[in-house]
């Protein structure tokens, strides 16, 4: 992924695609022979399409002999002169959706054909904030452990401050029916209501990279910390309805081809009381949600081992929590270990001061 954070950035643009800047060290005669083989390739069949459609494996023949052609989108040219002209070089820009400061599109890179398929998936954040820039800029990562005490004293107040700044307007727009209603594929309203819609990073057609988002309606569940043992049946109900709605809308899929997972702070839970578990870094927004993806979708930065937990495991953890006579057992009693970028607010305002034994200035959140 490349972002424009190193250059003039009045809008954050996340670009998924590719122009090659690779150079060859092959002798010219050998290179010419190899290059002449590619146009002679005749397709027999597609073997595989992975990395969310960015890499394909083709079986075919060259001069009647079997051949494999593996094609992968090349990297962006990050030359500043090229980047300055990038946005104006795009053609056939088609908006897929818009909500608050977020919008997403399909586009082409100067196509020569009359009706070429899109080769760019664009996400636009405009106007973007410093927090968006920090999220997408390359930075060193740190592993931190959030104890129940650190959560209660520092992280919870930080989360509350972010919610009060209006960072969840786009979520509330969906919940309250103001935007993206045409994308909602399932909804239950009420105290324990939730809705299901496509994630903005999915192209909405490639089943192997399917990615849906389940968002709860109630606003008192900000993160995993708010899940209690007595919510287990509700979480199980959501799992069942989300699976049911997905296979109904996409009949080519079966239930056991779907994977449901959650992240550390904006999604369900962790282990048993007083157990430390490694999970993903903090989310951009603090409102409980569940990811539904195709099981063949390759684990990237958001669902790799140590960064996401399967919903089935979370349900089991909630079910096996010991009961308490004083208060319902829940994720507020668990220590969580996750990754943070050095430029993230939580690292700069909470964990770095704690590491350096300085005062955490809660009033500055």
Overview of this protein structure:
It is a single chain. About 25% of the residues lie in helices and about 25% in strands. It has about 375 residues and is α+β, with helices and mostly antiparallel strands. The chain folds into 2 domains: about 30-70, no CATH class; about 140-365, HIT family, subunit A (2-Layer Sandwich). α7 (about 230-250) packs antiparallel against α8 (about 310-320).
Give the gist of this structure.
This protein has 365 residues and is of the alpha+beta class.
Sum up the structure in keywords:
365 residues, alpha+beta, HIT family, subunit A, 6-stranded antiparallel β-sheet, 9 helices, 16 strands, disordered N terminus
Tally the helices.
Answer: 9
CATH third-tier fold name of the largest domain: HIT family, subunit A
Q: Name the poorly predicted regions.
A: 1-23, 266-283
**Per the principal axes of the C-alpha atoms, what is the gross shape?**
globular
If classified by CATH, what would the architecture of the largest domain be?
2-Layer Sandwich
Write out the CATH superfamily name of the largest domain. Answer: HIT-like
Oligomer designation: single chain
Structural class by sheet pairing and helices: alpha+beta
Largest sheet: 6 strands, antiparallel
